[in-house]
Amino acid sequence: MTKIELPFGKGKIEAQIPEERIQGILVSGAHSYHPEYSETELVEEAVTHPVGSKRLKDLARGKKNIVMIASDHTRPVPSKVIMPVILKEIKEGSPDAVVTVLIATGFHRPTTKEELIYKFGQEIVDRKDIRFVVHESGKAEDMVEIGILPSGGRLRINRIAYEADLLIAEGFIEPHFFAGFSGGRKSVLPGVSSRETVMANHCSEFIADEHSRTGILEGNPIHKDMVWAAEKAKLAFIVNVVLDQDKKVIRAFAGHFDKAHREGCRFVNQLSGVDAAPADIVISTNGGYPLDQNIYQSVKGMTAAEATCRPGGVIIMVSSCMDGHGGQELYDTFANEKDKEKIMAGFLATDRDSTVPDQWESQILCRILLKYKVIMVTQAPQKMVEEMQMDYAADLPEALRMADAYLGKENAPITVIPDGVSVIVRK
Questions:
Q1: Which of the four, 107, 136, 219, 387, has the lowest number of CB atoms within 10 Å?
Q2: Is 191 left (phi over 0), alpha (psi -120 to 50) or beta?
Q3: Options 73, 108, 135, 256, the catalytic residue
Q4: Active-site residue, 256 included
Q5: 166-175 CB burial, b ≥16 within 10 A, e <16
Q6: In this predicted model, what pLDDT tens digit does every residue of 363-379 receive, in sequence order?
Q7: Which domains does the chain have, with CATH numbers?
Q8: Tens-digit pLDDT profile for residues 91-144
Q9: How far apart are CA 182 and CA 242, in angstroms?
Q10: Residue limits of the LarA-like N-terminal domain (predicted)?
């Protein structure tokens, strides 16, 4: 038997699979990359040698109202490591600056105080020279319109970001299932943009575009809008990190929001690219906590399996989903209409300005469900999973038995992706 550890929530579960059934194990090179320096040293090196930009301390000089966009509770960005380095650099340039940390929730629920403490640490959260504000995309009164996106959608962002003397952002770079890569420009759109702006950018036309896929930036209409938004918002400096499977920093990139981000994307692309290992059964995960908190986020890990699963095959998604579905509209889409062809036709007939919340996630999940059986090994309620037109398994052995029964054969080949959000599967 081949034993493979799969991240699940804040722990791991062990998969035991007959060796002869293993078609491939797809793992990002990031998980075996061993940097010579500590996490803090890596961030310091990036900040002191920025790409395409002056140093942050130089940009901060004379600035009093500095806003840092930070990722929310759904992202494993090690802000405890990044924030002290950024603050030190800012204070060297502008000792009296007021720093506002604007939490980029995008379309997610608000981040709680407890989650802020977990992410930044009690000492940072308690500092008197820092204030934390959680972005809420549905609060129209908090937004200001600053232009029209290349796609035609209205760019409306959080007023706090717009009114900053200096706007910066922290984040991380990993493969992203429709924006190509996370990080960089995503801090602004969708990070601190209005619901209407996010929905226009995540429209069905763009989600269906063949360039809106993992690892692709060139020709990606979603990415194009995001870059334009970041430039219009005057995002001046970013600090983005690359993480291994233990969510530890292995590289950092800082500087110009696009130039530094692209350099980071090239690094991630080299590490994360893996050749597909086509199989009838593909096991994937969402990399554990915090990205596997709900079904909504877990669609990301499914897309990695989609890229290597044979038509008509089975995707087994191992994801905690301790918070349930993560999106009422996502749940309702599949619970209220059982005809997946009809669901997809409805998406494709929806114009940009009529996009509804979570439509993009629903569209991608529907695309997957039209081609594959999806079995979830999860803590989400069985009824919820089944109402969303997927199958529920209490554990991985049960899921494999269900997959074999569905396929009508006992020894179908299996490909395992221990961390589905960390790889770029190349067909």
A1: 219
A2: alpha
A3: 108
A4: no
A5: bbbbbbbbbb
A6: 999 999 999 999 999 99
A7: 2-26+276-426 (3.90.226.30), 39-271 (3.40.50.11440)
A8: 999 999 989 999 999 888 889 999 999 999 999 999 988 999 999 999 999 999
A9: 10
A10: 8-215
